[in-house]
UniProtKB/TrEMBL annotation:
<dbReference type="GO" id="GO:0006281">
    <property type="term" value="P:DNA repair"/>
</dbReference>
<dbReference type="InterPro" id="IPR042242">
    <property type="entry name" value="RecO_C"/>
</dbReference>
<dbReference type="InterPro" id="IPR003717">
    <property type="entry name" value="RecO"/>
</dbReference>
<dbReference type="GO" id="GO:0006310">
    <property type="term" value="P:DNA recombination"/>
</dbReference>
<protein>
    <submittedName>
        <fullName>DNA repair protein RecO (Recombination protein O)</fullName>
    </submittedName>
</protein>
<dbReference type="Pfam" id="PF02565">
    <property type="entry name" value="RecO_C"/>
</dbReference>
<dbReference type="InterPro" id="IPR022572">
    <property type="entry name" value="DNA_rep/recomb_RecO_N"/>
</dbReference>
<feature type="domain" description="DNA replication/recombination mediator RecO N-terminal">
    <location>
        <begin position="1"/>
        <end position="59"/>
    </location>
</feature>
<dbReference type="Pfam" id="PF11967">
    <property type="entry name" value="RecO_N"/>
</dbReference>
Length: 208
C-alpha cells in the first residue's frame, strides 16, 4: 500500500520511546491510523499537533498492516492554541473526528467541512463567526454516519446569530451534544465529551 495525500491530523498518541500513532483524516481514504517514527522528537513534535494540515506519505507492505507515515506540515494551527476558545474548539472537533469515524472509509464532505471549520476557528474575529460552522459539522457528522436528517443541517445556528440570539445557539449546541453522546460516543463519553464540556463552558461565558 502506498498513499500520498493531504490530511488533517486528528490525534497523536505516544507509542514506544519516540514514536507516535497518528490518526489522519484524508478525503479519499478516510481516517487512517499510521505510525510516525520519531514523532515525539524535536523536529516532528510541533508538526504532530491535532488540527494541523499536512501532506502524508503512507506505506505498508500489505493492506491490513498499519502503515508507516512520513509527514510534511502544510498549515500550522498551533499558534491559535494559545487562545482559550479556539484551543477548546480545535481540541473538541479533532477528538470527535478521531474517535467516531471508522477506519479507511472515505467521507470527503466531512474532510472538506472539517478543514473549513478549522480555518474559521482560526481566522474568525470571535466565536460568533465559527459557532454555526461547528454546529453544521456536528450535524453533518451525525448524518454521514447514518443517523438521518433529523438533526438538521446546522445552518439555523447562523440564522439565530443573525437575530442576535446567542442563547439559542447554545441551546442547539446542547441538543447536538446529547445526540453525539448517545449515538456516536456512547462507549467513550467520559473520554471525549469532557473536551466538549470545556468548550461549552467557554462559549457560555459569552452570554453573560
Amino acid at each position: 500500500m502506498h498513499i500520498r495525500a493531504p490530511a488533517i491530523l486528528c490525534s497523536a498518541r505516544p507509542h514506544g520511546e519516540v514514536g507516535v500513532i497518528a490518526r489522519l483524516m484524508t478525503a479519499d481514504h478516510g481516517m487512517v491510523a499510521a505510525y510516525v517514527a520519531g514523532g515525539r522528537g524535536r523536529e516532528l513534535r510541533p508538526v504532530l499537533i491535532p488540527g494541523n494540515a499536512m501532506a502524508v506519505d503512507l506505506r505498508a507492505r500489505i493492506p491490513s498492516q498499519m502503515p508507516a507515515a512520513k509527514v510534511e506540515l502544510t498549515i500550522s494551527r498551533a499558534p491559535f492554541l494559545t487562545e482559550p476558545l479556539p484551543a477548546a474548539a480545535i481540541g473538541w472537533v479533532t477528538a470527535l473526528s478521531a474517535c467516531s469515524l471508522p477506519e479507511r472509509q472515505a467521507y470527503p464532505a466531512l474532510y472538506d467541512a472539517l478543514g473549513a471549520l478549522l480555518d474559521a476557528v482560526c481566522h474568525a474575529p470571535s466565536a460568533r463567526g465559527w459557532a454555526p460552522a461547528l454546529l453544521a459539522y456536528e450535524a453533518l457528522l451525525l448524518r454521514e454516519l447514518g443517523y438521518g436528517e433529523r438533526f438538521g443541517a446546522g445552518t439555523d445556528g447562523q440564522r439565530m446569530l443573525d437575530g442576535g440570539a446567542w442563547e439559542a445557539v447554545l441551546a442547539r449546541f446542547d441538543a447536538l451534544g446529547l445526540a453525539l453522546s448517545r449515538y456516536l460516543l456512547a462507549d467513550r463519553r467520559g473520554d471525549v465529551m469532557g473536551a466538549r464540556e470545556i468548550l461549552r463552558q467557554r462559549l457560555g461565558r459569552m452570554a453573560a
